Amino acid sequence: MEKFKHIPVGTKVIVRGSASGVIYGNFVEATKDYTVVTKGRQLWEWRASKGISLIDVATFGVEASKCKFSAPDGEVTILDACALIIVTAAAAKSIEAVPVSRT
User: Fold this and answer.
1) What is the domain-level CATH number for residue 78?
2) 24, pLDDT greater than 60
3) Which pLDDT score is estimated for 1?
4) CA triplet 1, 10, 21: central angle to 5 degrees?
């Protein structure tokens, strides 16, 4: 399986899955069949701090009060990835500052 070698391990990414939803985490590896991240957080609801799209979330960050995110998990394998978006440092700081949602 050919791997995505242009993304360094540890890069902050957002992965959109066709059925599994949206996961934020540290990139480990990706092939055409799966993507692996560590410290993965499920993004259940989000609002970009600027713009409307998931690409805007990865670029500009989020409005924390409008978000529902899970706690980080050790390692997450996404089997249905349809988008892999590199996250800027400012956006990563914003995403990581969102508290864990309990409802």
Assistant:
1) 2.30.30
2) yes
3) 53
4) 70
For residues 38 and 74, give the distance between their C-alpha atoms in angstroms, rounded to a whole number: 5
CB 27 within 8 A of CB 16: no
* 103 assigned to some structural domain: no
Taking CA atoms, 43 is separated from 1, 22, 71, in Å, by 28, 5, 10
- What's the whole-model pTM score? 0.94
Closest CA to 36 of 45, 21, 26: 26
3-state helix, strand, coil in the chain (%, to 5): 15, 45, 40
Residue 6 lies in a domain: no
Per-residue pLDDT band at 13 (split at 50, 70, 90): very high
* Domain ranges, residue 18: 12-96
